Amino acid sequence: MLVLFLNKILKPLRDLAQVFKILSLCADKIEKQPCFVEPASDLIKLCGLPFLKKKVSDEITYTEDTANSLALLGELMKVRSSKLRIQICKCIVDFYHAQPPKKHIPGYQQVSSSYKIKMAEVGGLAKAMIQSVHLLEIQLIEKLWVLKVLQHLSTSVLDLQRSVYCHVLEKPHWSSRMLSKYCAIEIKCAVTDG
């Protein structure tokens, strides 16, 4: 319901910072009031949708707001909610599989998927996701989702692979399945360097 309401009034790049302020407020309340998990998850789903712009210059005008907003996704991995963490990961993976909006909003056009990926890079989302792995020592499902995100991010962030690989070497208790996913990221690094 929240997503439908916001989708009707949202002017995405222009209003993105406001959406993330609301998301941050919901996230701050989750620990004491778990009922905020659902609205926060709905807002994160909204962020997985294609971003829209009114003018070509919107991508430049809202660069800082967009990068800061996407960086917040990584920070929200600290919230102790498996549902929220998995939704964040799904949202980030959706950056790489952007579909055209289901409903055309007059006067708006979709920003390129490369813009969203670039803003995630500028905002330091990859670094925040690597750091979130420390928080997920027990939750295997969440770790696997983070690894999937890191695989996607590794295609656009060249230094990510080495950071991830070094992080894995410090964690001898990781499962072989997770290590093989990390090795796949390292292989991508070798290919992009070569």
From TrEMBL:
Q: Name one GO biological process term.
A: response to odorant
Q: Tell me, what's a Pfam family for it?
A: CFA69_ARM_rpt
Out of the domains of life, which is the source? Eukaryota
Q: Which GO terms describe its cellular component?
A: non-motile cilium; sperm midpiece
Residue ranges annotated for the Cilia- and flagella-associated protein 69 ARM repeats domain, each copy included: 12-156
Q: What is this protein called?
A: Uncharacterized protein C7orf63-like
Q: Which organism is it from?
A: Cricetulus griseus (Chinese hamster)
**What taxonomic lineage is listed for the species of origin?**
Eukaryota, Metazoa, Chordata, Craniata, Vertebrata
